Structure formats: structure tokens, C-alpha cells
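Q: Can I see a sequence and its folded structure?
A: Here is a first one.
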Amino acid sequence: MPLGVFVFMKKYAMALLLITCLLVVYTPVHAQVDQPKPLEDFYAEYGYKSLDEAVKEFEQQMKMKVTLPKKLPSLTFTHVLARVDRVGGSEKLELNVEYLNEHVPENHFNVDIRPAENKLFIHEKRIIEQVRLKSGGKGVFVKVPGFHVFIFETEHWQYRLSMDQRVSDQFFPDELVEIANTVESH
């Protein structure tokens, strides 16, 4: 083998060895993978906390007891988070309760409660159907893109129950009426 080829191959082998050593030295042993934030942390950034904490805060601010539905949709939920929200930045308060499934995003049920004197105005064009509740009161199904929404009132509160429409094959809107019928009036 000519001397020039031998020197070239020796330099090539040394360069290859150097690159291999650099790759071994600078490759992290445990590659760090960005983990998504836990659902609770994400919601906490928007003021959500445990259901008990939020209900207690809401009742203290409203100086009145609130009742949550005793029945929930027949879907599985991994989290229940809630917050007290100022409606449109005003002094009017609302309790927002979110039932979520971390692994099945369409399993999403909301219960929003506000004082009856601050009730939502519902335009007739948005009403799909009126329903009489066991208590004798009325509730209405309202047209909202992507959700089944049922709104009803008790003596002191207006409730808005909403369910993601993507679960329509497992959840029927009439179930919202059954849920509403489990709310006791105070």
C-alpha cells in the first residue's frame, strides 16, 4: 500500500474516532422529554380549584347555600374542578363546575350556577324545547354549537347544564332533565 494512502486512512480513522468520542460525550444519558402539564395545573391558571373550595367560596360571597345536582351523566370523569367567576368582569358571580376526563376529552360536563336575579337572557330563537320539571318549574333546551344545553331555575338560582355533543351516542339530552330533577330548591 502506498504511503500516501496509508496516511490518508490513518487520518480518516482518527477523525472517525474523534467524532464517535464527541457523540458519546455530548449525548445526554437521560434525554429530557417535555411532559404536558397535569390537567389540574392547567385549570389552576384560570382560577379553578377543588369543588369543595369553590362551592364554599361561592356560598360565602353569595351568603346563601347552593345545591349541586345529585346525579351526573353516565360517563366517566377523572377530574372535577370548579371556580367562582365574575361574569363579564362585572360584580355578578357565577359558580363554574367542570367534570372532565383527562383521557377522553369529549367526556366534558359543565354545571354553571348564578343567582336567579342575574339570570341569562335567552332569546326565543335559541330555545329548542321547553320541559316541565318534577318541581313544577320549567327548563329549556338551548341551541349552542357543539353542546347540549339545558337551563332551569330554582327559587334562588339559575342552572346551566351542558354536555359535549361528541358523546351523543352515549349520552342523550333528556339525561340533562333527569340531572336537573335531582337539584333540590332551597
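Q: Show me another, different protein.
A: A second, unrelated one:
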Amino acid sequence: MRDTDSTPREPMSKVDTAWLRMERPTNRMMITGVLMFAGPLDPARIKALLAERFLAFRRFRQKAVVGANGAWWETDADFDLDWHVRIAALPGPADKAGLEAFVSDLASSPLDLSKPLWQFHVVENYTAPDGRSGSVLVARIHHCYADGLALVQVLLSLTDTAPQPQAHAELAKTWLKRDRGSVLERLLEPMQGGLHKAVALGEKTWARLAQMMADPAIAAEFAHEGSEITRELAIALTLPDDPITALKGRLGVAKRVAWAEPLPLDEVKVLGKVLGCTVNDVLLACAAGALRGYLRDQGEDVDGLTIRATVPVNLRPLEHAKKLGNHFGLVFLDLPIGEPNPLRRLERVAACMRDLKGRRQAVVAFGLLAALGMAPAALQGPALELFSRKATAVATNVPGPQQPLFMAGVEVRELMFWVPQTGSIGLGLSILSYNGRVHFGVIGDGKRVKDPDAIVQRFDAEFEKLVLIALMEDWSEDFGAPDAAATLAKFAMDPADSAGTHA
């Protein structure tokens, strides 16, 4: 897990190279994390902590170098920790809106390619919505170092389960217990068998990809008659483009972020059990409902509309996630934003998740990323754009520790993070559970999502609709979407949705 070898240069993996090449002014390939604290952080203690734990990963002393024949890691001979750890202060009232604006600016700004591609920003003044003051740590780390799950765990390895650091070793045992309800666990097991095969076929995959991109008829043929991996790749290629909405279109360079007040995790678990689905199904259905309301407010006709989100799927055991590098695939998840009935929307999300569970789609995506790392740059751009047109958003859902954490002796109150969007995708949805609460956040392209707060503010309302359904129905009998429609029409639903609700 930790490496102290001082070799100055080593080849970058093909998948990590693909993520490095994906960097665009319109979509920075950074994973952005925000940790909000119950009190003030000491910048000197933070730097000492990073020197001890973060830099124990040799990779973070290395910079990414791109050459004509690929990319490699090179030790930064001029490494300066002070350059990578910046001290900042929010202007004005230093409130949530100010912090969201600060994080938005950072998410829009590139990292310096002449140095290791990461920075931490210590915000010394922050006033939370409940009026309590504290500090914030904003982390920016390039995706070429590792995938989102690995980097979230690396960030949390900086924390302890008690104010004193002696408890640091306990975190792995308390956090990495098996969580059979997580999307990562549910999608992981049926795919591991094909992972090595996908990687082994990587060099052939990009040639097949070029062939199928050049002739859609060949892709359609492979979709019916190819080998398992080629068939899944062909199916992904032949998916129709996602419908055009206000969320899709030409991107700018500015990003905007926002996050909602957290939900109690126990309530989400109980609701999922009552409605016969998983925690992740509930949360993603709430996200779909929030997007539905947002687009309707933009004047769009959303009835009957389904959009897709790409969902990163871990392809290694969770206890190995702190090993750096990218080891994940992607699946396409349908978000039925055109469905006005919240329970029917949940049923459709759950059905899609069950279907994805038995597929090899995530392994194919991993092999595709490896292939893109091997492919000529002239092919990578068109391939990335082709797959970007198939989805509107990137949605991530990471189960975090369910006990309070401390960094440099100060309690972490809230957590939020976003993975980057690729190609022409301009919306990211992030769900993270921590210390008994669920945190939901949005990152959007400034041209496509001018007010992400208008999305996150709807998330809680969508959850409350599902709670109302569960509370108002007769539990002695089975109930479904028609019953929910009647309940919501009477008690809670917006008139425009109530008129269009169907069984």
C-alpha cells in the first residue's frame, strides 16, 4: 500500500494515461473533496499530517509527464509542500454560499502540470448554516493518480476515530466492514471474473473500437454475435444519444457546486426496507426527482423523458481501495425524470440497478479506458465524445465511515466530494454517507446548470414524498404506484405533476 522506492521515473498505466489525456478546459479531470470541521484547523498541523500520511504514498511526490509514446511518473526534484497546501479565507459573511463559490472557482481552475497534480486549501473561516464557526479543507487531486473511491479513502486515511491520533489504526476495521447494500458491492462480484480478460484484451479492444466507430453496421453485428466483452462494448456504442435538455449542450469553463443539508441515514434505510429496495435506489430516485423539478422550472417538457447517468463501479475489493491507480468501470443507469409518480420512479431505478447487477458492462468500460490509453490521440477524442453523448450526468455513491472522524484533533462535521465529468457531460451528482447522515451534492457546468442550489434544495422534498407514501399507505396490504399517486395527489404533489401522474 505504501511505497518508499525512490526510482525517479516509471511508466504510467494505460488506464491512468487515459484519464490524464481526458483533461479539457471544459472538464478538469480533478476529484474535488470538501471536509467541513467543527472548529479551527491549525495549518501547521495539517502540513505535518500530510507530510506523514499523504506523502507516505510515493506517487504524490511525482508529477505526470506526457510524451509522444505515452506518459510516465517522474519524481519532482523541486517538491515544495508549501506550494501544495494553501491558506485561504472566505470574503464577507463566510457562509455556505461563499464556500460554494470558493469551491466552484477551484473546481474550474487547472492544476499545474509542472508539479504533482494535487493541492489542499485550508479555509480558516467558515460559518455553517447552524451558525457554528469552523474551518474547511478543500482537496483537489487529479484523476490520473487514482479513482474516486481510492482517493476518498486516501483522504479519510488522514483522519482518526478519536481526537488523539493513536486511534488512527482503528479506521480500516470500522469503515471497511462489508456493506451488502452498496452499489459497489452489488455490482462488484459478478464482474471480477471478466476483469483480467478485459485488461488482457485491451490492445485488441481499441482496434475493434475504431472498426465499430467507422461502421455502425459492424457495431450492430457485434452487439448480437460478438464475444461477451465485444458484445457489451458494441451495445454501449449502439445506445442512442441521450435526449437534449438544458443539462446537455456546449460547455463553458466555469463549474458551479452546491450541496444539500444531509438526511438521516437510518431513515433512508428504513424507507428502503419498507419499499423493498436499497438505500442507493432511494437516493438515486430522489436525485432523478430533483432533476425533474429543476428542468420543469426551466420551462422544459420532461414528461416521458429518461436520461442516463454513468455510474463508476469499483472493480477491486473495498479493503484494497487505498491502493492508488484507477480500477473501476462505468455503467449506464437510467434516470426516469419523465415519471411524475415518485414510487414508480423508484421502482424503475431499482429495476435498472437489478438489471445492471448481472451485466459485464463495467468490465467493458474498464477495458475501454485501457484501450483509450493505448490508442492514438486522434482516436481518443472522438471515442470519448461518442460515449459522452450517451449520458447526461455522472453519478457517484460512496459509503463512508459511520462514526465521527477527526483530523489534526478537530472533528469532521460534513463531507462532500465530486468526481470529474468527461467529454461533453456537464453534470455530476454525488452521494456520500458519513456518521449516520447522507450528503448529496451537485457540480455542474456554468452554462448548463446556472443554479445547482435549485437542484439540491429539491432532494429533501423528494425524499419526504417517499416518506409520506410509506406513512400514509395501509401496510397490511401491498401497495404500489397507483396508491402512491392517489396519496400524493391529495396531500403533497405539485398540481402539474398530480395531473400527469399515472400508474
